[in-house]
Q: What sequence folds into this?
């Protein structure tokens, strides 16, 4: 059995935030990806690979938030993977911008926020994992 994350009100808050952030990400991304021409036009010069990544990541946000709520140990690693993957896409977006690709300034802020949020959530969750020594003591 996987060790549970320690009980913590910050972790509860982070889990609720993660689920709500994920649902909002799915709604916003889905509107642009699957909406009409007016929705795509309102999004401006969006970068398709960033939009698709964020939309798909929205499902992972919800899963991570639910797993954090349940205090599942692997949720910390999922949050870290989300944070690192977001940072990689942010770097690829930076290359896109530096090579003259069209973009919206709000995408820079959004990707910085997403990266910081998920690296922060993962740091909190990893910190609240039981220590290796404690988990070894409880093993029969």
A:
């Amino acid at each position: 059995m996987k060790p549970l994350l320690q009980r913590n009100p910050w972790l509860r808050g982070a889990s609720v935030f993660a689920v709500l952030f994920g649902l909002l990400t799915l709604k916003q991304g889905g509107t642009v990806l699957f909406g009409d021409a007016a929705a795509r036009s309102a999004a401006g010069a969006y970068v398709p690979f960033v939009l698709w990544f964020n939309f798909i990541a929205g499902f992972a946000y919800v899963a991570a938030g639910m797993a954090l709520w349940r205090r599942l140990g692997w949720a910390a690693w999922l949050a870290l993977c989300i944070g690192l993957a977001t940072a990689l896409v942010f770097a690829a977006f930076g290359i896109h911008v530096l090579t003259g690709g069209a973009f919206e300034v709000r995408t820079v802020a959004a990707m910085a926020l997403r990266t910081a949020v998920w690296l922060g959530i993962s740091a909190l969750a990893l910190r609240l994992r039981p220590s290796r020594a404690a988990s070894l003591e409880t093993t029969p």
DSSP finds six helices and no strands in the chain. The chain has a mean pLDDT of 91.
